[in-house]
Design brief:
By secondary structure, this protein is an alpha+beta fold. Helix content is about 20%, strand content about 55%. The chain has one helix at about 50-65, and strands at about 1-10, 15-20, 30-35, 40-45, 70-75.
Amino acid sequence: MRPVIHWEFTRGTERVICQVERDATSGAFAVALVACRGLRRASIGTFQAVAAALRRHAAVANELRSAGWKLAAYTR
């Protein structure tokens, strides 16, 4: 998997990563949420089109911000 977009959110001492990754073999895009403490990973969905994956990423990021998470770092 190769990252397309990678955002890190913090809330107090907690940190999570919300990212879109591209599978080099299938070309599919996965949206994932990774809790940094304990490295728990939740796959939120797999999409064939990058636009759909980015829309889902934006929705998850909005949900995180609504729950009090703040964007701390991002790439791309």
